Amino acid sequence: MSGDASDDAAVADGSRTTPDADSRPLPDEQPGPDDRDHPEGRRNLEGIRIDPVVEAEHESRRAVISALVEDEPGVLARVSGLVSRRQFNIESLTVGPTTVDGHSRITMVVEETDPGIDQIEKQMAKLKPVISVGEVAGDAVTSELVLLKVEADDPAAVHAVSEMYDGRTVDAGPETITVELTGDKASIDNAIGAFDRFGIVEIARTGPTALARGDTPTAPGEKPGTAGEPTTHDD
Amino acid sequence: MSDTAAQPRSDGDEADDSSAETATEEPTEPDDEGAAGPVSTGAESVVAALEAAGAKTAFGVQGGAIMPVYDALYDSSIRHVTMAHEQGAAHAADAYSVVAGEPGLCMATSGPGATNLVTGIADADMDSDAMLALTGQVPTEFVGNDAFQETDTVGVTRPITKHNYFAGGADTVGDTVGEAFELSRAGRPGPTLVDLPKDVTQDDTDRTPGPATAPAGTDPDPNADQEAVEEAARAIESAERPVCLFGGGVIKADASDEARTFARSYGIPVTTTMPGIGSFPEDDDLCLSWAGMHGTGYANLAITHTDCLIAVGTRFDDRLTGGIDTFAPEAEVIHVDIDPAEISKNVHADYPLIGDAGRVLDQLTAAVREAPDAEAWRDRCEEWKETYPLTYATPDDEPLKPQFVVEAFDEATDDDTIVTTGVGQHQMWASQFWTYSEPRTWVSSHGLGTMGYGVPAAVGARVAADTMGEADRDVVCFDGDGSFLMTMQELSVAVREELDITIAVLNNEYIGMVRQWQDAFYEGRHMASDYTWMPEFDKLAEAFGALGLRVDDYDEVAPAVEEALDYEGPAVVDFHVDPEENVLPMVPSGGANGKFAAAEDQL
Fold first, then answer.
1. Considering only CB atoms, which chain B residues are within 8 Å of A101?
2. Among B218, B394, B599, beta carbon nearest to A19
3. What is the pTM of this model?
4. Contacts of B345 in chain A (CB under 8 A)
5. What's the pLDDT at A224?
6. What does the pLDDT read at residue B33?
7. Helix (H, G, I), strand (E, B) or coil at B518
8. Residue B111 confidence (pLDDT) above 90
9. How far apart are CA B445 and CA B127, in angstroms?
């Protein structure tokens, strides 16, 4: 039975009758896709109308995003899961407690276009444990920590380089020396370059954490708080 | 009740386990509005919180870890509908929320019960449907040990829920459930989930949950910034080719009246998205039906040529936009949405208006001082409507055309009839050839495209209509043969509950949309899309205890439609339709909307 239906289905166009044939043009009487009038305009990949003179394409840039979050189980998984699921390019992520019990600060460095950075902030703001989120201004204080383990063949030279970068020797043995350094990304990168000649055995880097300068709040609407006091919510 | 099952540990231990919970308010007076009655266990607290929040119906499947909650439901006013499969429970709850405008509630046990809910939760998430899923979990002390029927449900459902909770203790679980229920409908709706370890629901508590409230900050200001509204109004006034695009958000915000008032006040042609079907009557002169991959040619042409797109409650899904570069390329976009994250996510919004669809449309209606001069544009839209009608050829005899079946049901039923569908060709025909005029009558799986959505959705829609006292509304499910086979076990639920639904299977013995794409893009190589092994659905329906009919010819359609609709209970009509029929028009994936194919040789 089913096989018959399948054979019958190969109906030639000519054998068909169209209901209401007077008012409904058959598809072959309609202008085809390329015969129709089309507008001149275009949009770019970010959905922005392209000005024919100045085409607006955004370059990626590095942005530091700070989020004040409720310190509930899974909050880091929620934030990192959101970022990875939406294919944002994350460079580093640091988390730590704030002055308020039950609140943490997440500092995230991303490499994205302006619309991408905007989306990250908006999507993070939707997460229930996120109290406040925003991009940290370009002049903010940012710093990261690195622990460097190098070979101990020339301890005096290692010490000298360490001094140059305001480092601190935290472990020294016959085989290896471990140095602790803090600073912004560029100075850490430079320091690693300088230590390279001793033979770097291991590196552990935290990624930057950041605070806004002066009395500007780091996350929008954030107020100074201590244990037991609310900082901010849904401002 | 709480002592009937063996407790793995003493009651005193659990009080410290509430670290996952946010601080809760003191118990409120029992006579407070919305407050729950006295409770003695965590499970009773869960049920009391649901009752206080206004939940009337739950869909679910029993199981070991959720048993305490089910036991507490025994004496509850909440109606529980046992489903054949947890996926059915989630879809039924989803459809319930679409029809009733209230959060749907679904329940499952731990492990496989919870994972079976996942498809339905993801579906609700993509379509922004308010839904609360309650899942059982192994006792807290076993969590993380790969215990029997353990799954990290919170972890699994994290990306597909608005928020999910791991209940920490019997004292707080009621408040958590109440909060999750309210959160699901606050602001932009979506699914929430509470994972309920068995010890939490079994433990004693005398703590009555307080009134359910959404967490702070999740219910945003419904009004858009007035200055932004004024700017958008000026753009509308000066537009020459304005088009409204009403999305599912218009329906969720119950803003259809405001949408109709706005468009008609200023004579602006209207297109909808597929989830927005029903927000604006399709028989209105201004209506251009829905746009997108299988939307009407005239809707897609209007979207392509507009210079001012007033988009309300849509997230600009790629099935709507086609290629972003060719989507409304000359339009200034006014985007109304309750969710700021939707603004400029896919299509840049020149005039973002963040707020509730109804309130913002009212603001816009008040702010626009004179209608745009769009008479020539309306004429052009009308010409497109005449040039590219939705049509199909009907040969004199077999094979039966599926579109004819949809039209036959549409003619035989009232405007308030609820249509549910699976996913595939039949879904497109059900949306193209049915004239929708009311919101909450079109219930389908949009964003996730879940085959098998139709039958459990019909169960949920029927229960919703009955709960609302609208038992006289018809519920018609259009399903495909492949889609029907995925969840047809829920027919047993419809039979048991004596649910008056009609299921029209548009049976083409193909997984038809795939076959259509294979013909268009894969040289007709029908890999795994040939479903000639389908059972006889009319006989299966009879085996379930439902009415089963089979239709092969045109002249059998009207009598079968009548018999199925008249039947008081579930009826299945197996329509054997033309297996070669395709869904047209079609915008190829990622293509330009204005370049839709009106005929197969244009693909």
1. none
2. B394
3. 0.91
4. 119
5. 63
6. 58
7. helix
8. yes
9. 7
